[in-house]
Amino acid sequence: MSTPTTYDLLVIGSGQGGGPLAGAASSQGWNTALIERKHIGGSCVNEGCTPTKTMVASARIAHLARRAEDYGVQTGDVHVNLAQVRQRKRDIVKMFREGSRSGLESKGVKIYEGEASFVDSRTVEITYPDGSTERVRGERIVINTGTRPNIPPIDGIDTVEYLTSTTIMELDTVPERLLVLGGGYIGLEFGQMFSRFGSEVTVLQRGNQLLDREDSDVADAVLDILRDEGLEIHLNAEANAMRTTPEGEVSVTATLNGTTRTFSGSEVLMATGRRPNSQALNPAAAGIAVNDRGFIPVNEEFQTATDQIYAIGDITGGPAFTHVAYDDYRILKDNLLNGASRTVDNRLIPYTVFIDPQLGRVGLSEDQAREGGHDIRVAQIPMARVARALETDETRGFMKAIVDAETDQILGATILGVEGGEIMSVLQMAMMGNVPYTAIRDGIFAHPTYAESLNNLFTAME
């Protein structure tokens, strides 16, 4: 076997942390290589944010078209051409993917397209699609291999054809009846999307509320919104068996509060969480520890248990958001390339769930603040009190902000409403700048905008 090529930096995985890091290192003169087993750009570009939000946009247009008469606009029957929706999604993904590749190549990054597996703490073997192998070495190695859909060990699941968050986006016809196992972010985004495309959707959620990270009032409001749109949603539903019916459908037997029920659908989506892409890496060969779920623990500077090997993004088990992986990259870039000593301590992490209306979250929830012993005040108003929401007939949901009772600093916010993520970002910036809620309450915002409603939100402080 030939002597492996040695790189200053070897990056495994081209997600929104690994790709930019490889490009930045190469731009600063480091001999850099990137190993990617499937598609440049990682899950966000290829299977996550970009394709799903593209399809969410199509679903919203279908929804608004059906509501046209509410606005005094006459239309005919609304039909969804899922093959055309899929092609639009594919075109945008291709554009983003090719842009990611060309950006890396223009910076001089060597790209290997195959499966990476550690041989030792500095050597990685690449297995190519044709079965051939090659070994490379890295003075420093960064793991950014992300996660994939988790498939739970339900009795009979190996005997049925099921969809994942990846494969459901490749359908070319709308399922007549779609079963969704899981009431988290992924399950609800796809459930509402396909309901708007024309499917009869049933969601089975094993917990006692949807979106288990959220306050109960938020989860209850989301439940009401989705049920009003026609989704059938069952809480405390534990799926324990699956099979294919004689008619070619999929049936799921579940226990609901001690009662056994069977549900059937033309398709079933497994939206039951994500699992780390760590096993194929053979991390033990490099002395890298993994936890009982397969994630790679790191310290506050993304160092693994092995010297000069780092991990960033979803593979670490932290918040699984693209913007978090990108911030991981920025911190590690400054540390590796610029000699900084940045950490993840005290960073403020926002997120948006792209159901409609959106759910934007930043900082502490009300439950988290109370459990943490904070002395808080809560500001809350329904979207029905927002002038812009009334004018656009988008009055579902509410705004809620958590404020420290002593300092007047905003501790967190939840915006369940049209453009909830954008409105949340205004409050995030206030939190970043230590702006007290009173400055938002008394500030002048353009009328009529959604952001203007923040005046009313903080005037309604309890």
Can you give a write-up of this model?
The chain has helices at residues 18-27, 42-46, 49-66, 82-106, 185-197, 216-228, 322-338, 366-371, 387-392, 420-432, 437-442, 453-459, and strands at 5-12, 32-36, 110-113, 115-118, 123-127, 133-143, 147-149, 177-181, 200-204, 232-234, 237-244, 250-256, 259-265, 267-270, 274-276, 309-311, 350-353, 358-363, 376-382, 398-404, 410-417. It has 462 residues and is α/β, with parallel strands linked by helices. The strands form five sheets. Strands 1, 2, 3, 4, 5, 6 and 16 form a seven-stranded mixed β-sheet that branches. The model has no long low-confidence stretch (mean pLDDT 96).
Secondary-structure-based class equals alpha/beta
Molecular shape: globular
The proportion of strand residues reads: 25-35%
Q: What does the largest sheet look like?
A: 7 strands, mixed
Helix run count:
12
Q: How many angstroms does the end-to-end distance come to? A: 72 Å
- Averaged pLDDT, please? 96
Pick out the low-confidence regions: none
| Helical content (DSSP H or I, runs of 4+) | 25-40%
Radius of gyration based on Cα positions: 24 Å
What's the number of extended β-strand segments? 21
